[in-house]
């Protein structure tokens, strides 16, 4: 959590809290407090002072939080100031150029712990003042808000802050405005004490709770190349996709660079990468792209380009991808316009393939404008009665077009026979090239191919790659197999020679890394009964068993 990555309204809120804390942090504050178990003098800790500073700041900074607070007249601002023994007029702002340093030295660690320990069991997408204040109620290290609540008898009787309707309102506000995952919206019986106005989406209230207007400053800010955590993400991705490390790195840098370019007011000509990513089936083209976008938290949509048709033809329209991206960005148009669109099976709209020549030509023509950076008017909204028009600019999008190029690849890698005088030699691998001219040759429009300025490829996995994936990858199917067995209260013992044997079998299947999953699924099928119903606490996997399973799986009996 870096100060400069915080949203503007969050900075203003925290600045006010730091103004308050700077006055009371070295001040001895002792109050006679009471709760259900203790009564007596309590000396405020630094955490206590920070908690109240954050809480009081919510009353003082204009915004949604102040509006929510104003609905609860039983919480008196003057009583809060009395509780920390200062007046509002005592607050003197810290110089602007000192807030960042003060935050790093005095607030950052505690704030991160407060939010972490809040135990939302929800996904926090970005930090808002509402999230911070709502998190205060879950603190175990500081009960100062409950002390305040009981001293001044706010709410009904001795009702603690944790039970106060204010916190229920705040919790549900953070859900509505997109700060936490919408799937965690409470049931109706949990929100009966929340003022209806918080759920009022009429035009004069839209500034309070409309998700589409909530911006994620972290996601909209420039990616900082000096931040070492960015490159740690790349390390994680490469450890997952063993054998495709170079591809992952090239794709990662291009996507990060596109995100930086998208922040500029004027995009430099030709600098945005429009990517054509080719490679054999099962080598992770889509998976690597998806992993990068998830790590960088960029809106992402992926679909087969064969699903789309041009205007006037039956089928989905290419602009549907923009609507999907807009939805993935939670209605944030600016964020959606910086997203990533992946078109799979791009080579299947080539003319030379049989059938639908006119349709394919029409789709290619539409893609020509689409990839080039046009503006499209879309009607968006969940209800047919509540649609709105938006203008979507595709000039800042990152396009990644995928193709297996199976037929072209076969032509390029035909085994050469007759070496020398009648001798023959075969090799599992052969170097070959695929050029833009090759794509034109299979039936992609020259102008469309010209849109691609960045070519990246995945390679076939070697037998050694497959064994390394099995042993070391964070997504090894053998690891998943072990976790499944352990979830049933048993353990797995694997002989050393099993890894090489599974890699050999997977290599023969020739379906890329997917072949490892196929082999492991066959092994799992063999052991399901023993794992689910057997009495043995240990499952043994040896080479003899693996050989037997493979033979039983592949062999068939048929009538002659």
Structure description:
Strands 4-7-10-3-11 form a 5-stranded parallel sheet, with helices on both faces. A hairpin with a 7-residue loop joins strand 8 (375-380) and strand 9 (388-393). It has 3 domains: 3-220, no CATH class; 228-413 and 429-457, 3-Layer(aba) Sandwich (Rossmann fold); 463-554, Helicase, Ruva Protein, domain 3 (Orthogonal Bundle). Residues 155-159, 181-221, 310-315 and 416-426 have low confidence and may be disordered. The protein is α/β, with parallel strands linked by helices. The protein has helices at 8-24, 46-60, 64-69, 77-83, 99-116, 129-135, 144-151, 165-176, 206-209, 217-220, 228-240, 245-262, 285-296, 320-328, 333-336, 357-372, 406-412, 436-441, 446-451, 463-472, 477-487, 497-509, 514-533, 543-554, and strands spanning 30-34, 39-43, 274-278, 300-304, 308-309, 316-317, 340-344, 375-380, 388-393, 398-403, 454-457, 491-494, 538-541.
